[in-house]
């Protein structure tokens, strides 16, 4: 095949697939500075109609009992709606075999957080996979920047921050314009506050562990915002699965970020406790919480549960009642 024709065919294919990078010369170097997590969006990629994970969880939970002809499917179909709910609640409260927690599988697309927040989030391993926006495969002279709220809200600090970012991005654009200097080389100068986008595939068991850690306000502001928005998005589709997702300190009923006489403090604890639970013997480098609940609530557009708030099982089951009323066919 003629090489020029082949190149044109590949580029046309990439345009259709959405894998063709933007031309740096066509991108404006203008930078928009965004306060914390105010641009974060989370969307759950769902098949339609939605999978009835509750039926699958029920079948997994009851399949241990009975003989070879005692179908878990028939057990669901023959059970009253309230019994179906009781079994699911037992699973979620860790009163049944835990394997059913691995049945629900979710795919979240997240955008608007910083690259540094993604670096924290992507530490999740078992039961989780990620795919994220590249800076080796794309040029980003027009990338927006996520600004820590404490810097954004302080005029002098914000001015200094903008100067530093503009110098870094100007250097980046200059490197891109020098002949064979690749995006791979130039990306080394981009700031960790550059806005990022990623996809997270996770089963529910792994999600509960992730949420226990990342919903706590001792994490970076936009890391926490991503976790709460994931919980919010999940609740739009599966209220019963979202409702019991809480910071791990809520289940311990004490501050777990700071623990007196614990070696964990020798490995970090930069910030003071957030105040959700009493922190009687604090140790910190910076006299502030890592994330503010008021910021998270503003970015979500709704209040988050307080530490002592009960799990609203009835409300959640009422919202998801249509799942429990269906038989498996």
Word description of this protein:
The chain has helices spanning 3-17, 53-62, 72-78, 81-92, 115-121, 149-152, 155-176, 183-186, 204-214, 221-237, 239-242, 248-252, 293-300, 313-319, 321-324; strands at 33-35, 41-44, 105-114, 128-132, 145-147, 195-203. Helices cover 42% and strands 10% of the residues. The protein starts with a helix and ends in a 5-residue tail after the last helix. The protein has a 4-stranded antiparallel beta sheet with strand order 2-3-6-4. Strands 1-5 form a two-stranded parallel sheet. By secondary structure, it is α+β, with helices and mostly antiparallel strands. Helix 2 (53-62) packs across helix 3 (72-78), helix 2 packs across helix 4 (81-92) and helix 10 crosses helix 13.
**Class from helix and strand fractions:** alpha+beta
Major sheet strand order: 2-3-6-4
Termini Cα gap = 52 Å
**Count of distinct strands:** 6
- Helix count, per DSSP? 15
Biggest β-sheet: count, sense, barrel? 4 strands, antiparallel
Strand content: 5-15%
Question: C-alpha Rg, in Å?
Answer: 24 Å
Contiguous uncertain segments of 5+ residues: none
User: Percent of residues in helical segments?
Assistant: 40-55%
Mean pLDDT: 90
| Helix-strand string | HEEHHHEHEEHHHEHHHHHHH
